[in-house]
Amino acid sequence: MTDNELEQKRASAARTFDVRRVIGGLFTLYGIIVTTVGLFDGQDEIAKAEGVRINLWMGLGMLALGLLFLAWQWLRPAETPEPPAQEQ
Q: CA-to-CA distance for 27 and 68, rounded, in angstroms?
């Protein structure tokens, strides 16, 4: 395996296991689910929350946070860690 191939594998692994991708993906997914539930809340659910469509607002907040994490990960990708120096 050449040094270039090894470097590409390291860079790919660093991007794959970036925690911002996991957090952003989960918040985005949960935000979509909770927002959808909030759109179809009945009057009973809204009355329990004292007139606030809490599922809708929290879902939108989660969606925004998830998209923020994904944008951060896309705009500032993870740097590839330097390989340890080998003794000769």
A: 10
Residue 79 lies in a domain: no
Q: Using alpha carbons, list the distances in angstroms from residue 37 to 17, 32, 55, 61.
A: 30, 9, 7, 14
The rounded distance, in Å, linking the Cα atoms of 13 and 5 is 12
Please state, in angstroms and rounded to a whole number, the distance separating the CA atoms of residues 38 and 63.
13
Range of the domain at 21: 16-73
57-84 pLDDT, tens digit each: 999 999 999 999 999 998 988 776 676 7
7 belongs to a structural domain: no
Mean pLDDT of 13-31: 87
Q: Is residue 88 part of a domain?
A: no
Which residues, 6+ apart, have CB-to-CB distance to 57 below 8 Å? 38
SS3 79: coil
